[in-house]
Amino acid sequence: MNKYILPVSVLGTVVGCGVLLKDHVTGGSCPSKDKIKGKTVVITGANTGIGKETARELAKRGGRIIMGCRDMEKCEAATREIRGETLNSQVYARHIDLASIKSIREFANWVNQEEERVDILINNAGVMRCPHWKTEDGFEMQFGVNHLGHFLLTNLLLEKLKSSAPSRIITLSSLAHIVGEIDFDDLNWEKKKYNTKMAYCQSKLANVLFTRELARRLQGTGVTANSLHPGVVATELGRHTGMHQSSLSSSVLGPLFYMLVKSPKQGAHPSVYLAVAKELEEATGRYYDVLQEKEPAPLALDDSAALRLWDVSAALVGLKPAEMAPPPKEEGVSVATPTAQTQAQLPVTPLPEKV
Ligand SMILES: NC(=O)C1=CN([C@@H]2O[C@H](COP(=O)(O)OP(=O)(O)OC[C@H]3O[C@@H](n4cnc5c(N)ncnc54)[C@H](OP(=O)(O)O)[C@@H]3O)[C@@H](O)[C@H]2O)C=CC1
Ligand SMILES: CC1=C(/C=C/C(C)=C/C=C/C(C)=C/C=O)C(C)(C)CCC1
């Protein structure tokens, strides 16, 4: 046996437990008690986990909550539960599948037509370490749902957010962004061997870079954009990791994990804080590690990568220049015209005709 394996494992376990304990201790309560009566919240992936607890807390604080989910049975069950508990009747279930451009456009059209305002958009839905699946439009699933889906949704709701200003966009990233890299030559994992962990990390780095470029484009509009890591939270996110199938996990590691990590209710505190706190009304372009503003990883501070990702993402999802946040005035024309390089990134499956 390699003599380093034992000390490295022990050190890894100690550091890992330290991170979990720190999260557990610091995730105790939401620092803001501000209410949001009269405000409308759109939140994705709200039928379970962090999203459901965020929706519940924001409903308690008086908001009108639009829960965007892909499984309507689960979504309606969650809205019934939240309405019953909070006595807030303005909690609604609406269909959105972030793995489908068509579905995202239908959801956004519905919100734009039916809702008077959107004050808070929470890009919460996520998928982690799934097999090498593709979205309806041919994108690698984690990049497609976690980044591209929210990129498109956010842009399609921007006019509504601007007309409701001051308003806020919150995107759930992860500490996992630190190990992520954006492979602009193969965003969809078509050329190299699929690595499901690194695909998740790439998508979470994309969340931070997207937020950075979005905040830059939204300067002066009254719409802010921030991203966050919610801590390590016991949710269904690990459903594709196989942990629940292993007997060691279910007998020993599972219960230990649940004791150490945060509950979904605690995991919702950062999203709620960024959504409601009066003192954060002008905070934008920031990354929060749980409740603390932190500098993200060096790759997440790369403005040219953020701009390039915006450009490629717009081309991939077929977002027209008139539909997206324009670059700041001094830069002139939109950067999102497809170039030879972005064309090369287009999915194998053709985009739907009506985009
Ligand atoms: N839990 C943790 O420790 C951490 C979580 N995060 C981030 O927090 C966010 C919330 O995750 P969490 O609550 O933990 O995970 P869960 O798996 O419990 O919840 C994820 C939600 O996303 C939804 N979702 C997945 N795919 C799609 C899709 N194609 N269209 C619409 N909705 C979809 C799920 O719907 P359905 O139930 O139908 O599958 C579910 O509602 C994610 O962005 C995650 O990356 C970041 C760091 C740590
Ligand atoms: C432990 C465990 C689970 C949860 C795993 C989770 C919730 C992992 C979270 C991952 C993180 C921290 C992602 C960061 O971006 C299951 C599968 C529910 C079943 C039982 C064992």
Automatic annotation (TrEMBL):
Q: In which pathway does it act?
A: Cofactor metabolism; retinol metabolism
**Protein family:** Belongs to the short-chain dehydrogenases/reductases (SDR) family.
Q: Which organism is it from?
A: Albula goreensis
A Pfam family (short name) is adh_short
Catalytic function, reaction form: all-trans-retinol + NADP(+) = all-trans-retinal + NADPH + H(+)
Which is one GO molecular function term here? all-trans-retinol dehydrogenase (NADP+) activity
Q: What class of enzyme is it?
A: oxidoreductase
UniProt entry keywords in alphabetical sequence:
Lipid metabolism, NADP, Oxidoreductase
- EC numbers listed for it are 1.1.1.300
Q: Where is this region: Disordered?
A: 323-355
Residue ranges annotated as compositionally biased, kind Polar residues, are 336-346
Q: What is this protein called?
A: NADP-retinol dehydrogenase
